Each structure stands twice: as structure tokens, then as C-alpha cells.
Amino acid sequence: MTINPFFKKHGLIKTGIAATILIILAAIPFLAEYERPLKESKLPASAGSFIKSAFPEERISFAKIEIEALRTEYEVFLSNGTKLVFNGKGKWKEIDCKHSSVPAGIIPEQIMDFIIKHGLDPSVQKISIGRKKTEAELSDGTELEFDRRFNLIGFDD
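Now predict its structure.
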């Protein structure tokens, strides 16, 4: 294989190889996925404040950070078995109270109104908020799914 003299003269082959290596090295952090334990003091301040106000009697048993591509999440496990998931800014995304109920003040008012209006078990064991929907699981196993405007879009008993 012969190399075009123009590329040799202007050093474009070396530059092209260097640019390719640089692009690959720059992309590695964005493709990496990892998780590691985290000290309570390293949680976002808003996550720590939320835990203290919503679960004042509980202590953090374990916390970890998960980094995946461009997304960061924090998982926190409380002494009573509750699992909390926060986004990178410290806003809660999921609360799973395995042995108790999600504190009523956390559940969006529209969801509690729906539960009460329809005579469902008011004890919410798990709630998760996503970009397009919110899901609530009641202690009797009933699962409710709401859109962004809190209209019921799914029901499974």
C-alpha cells in the first residue's frame, strides 16, 4: 500500500492517528458504568435533607452511587429496609418501603385523592416517579400507573 505524498508531506497520517486515539480516550468516561459505596456525607444535600425530614427515625445503613453513561443515581438503604433512589441532583425517583408505608406527605396529593376516592388501601408501599409516568404499589399488591397529569393509565390488582 502506498501513501499519497500529499498526506506524507503535511503529516496528516500522524495527525489522523492521534485524533482517532484522542477521540477514543475522550469517549471512555461516557461509556463507563460503575457503582461504588458512598459515605452519607457524600450524598447530595437535597437527598440528605429529604431523608432526615421524611424518615426522621431511621438511619442510613448503606449508600452507593451508580454511574452509567451520562446518568448518575444514588441508592440509599435505611435501617428499616426502605430503599430510596435519587437522581444525580438528589431528587427522589423511587421509594420502596418493604416493611412499612411510604410517608403520606411524600405521595403526590392527586394519587392519594384517587386512592381514597376509589376506596383502595391507602397504604402505599412503593412509589416511583419517572419522566412520563408515576407508579404506586399498595400494600395489598394493587399497582397503579399514572401519566404526568396524574390520570390513571394502568391498574393491576
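Helices lie at 5-10, 12-31, 45-54, 109-117.
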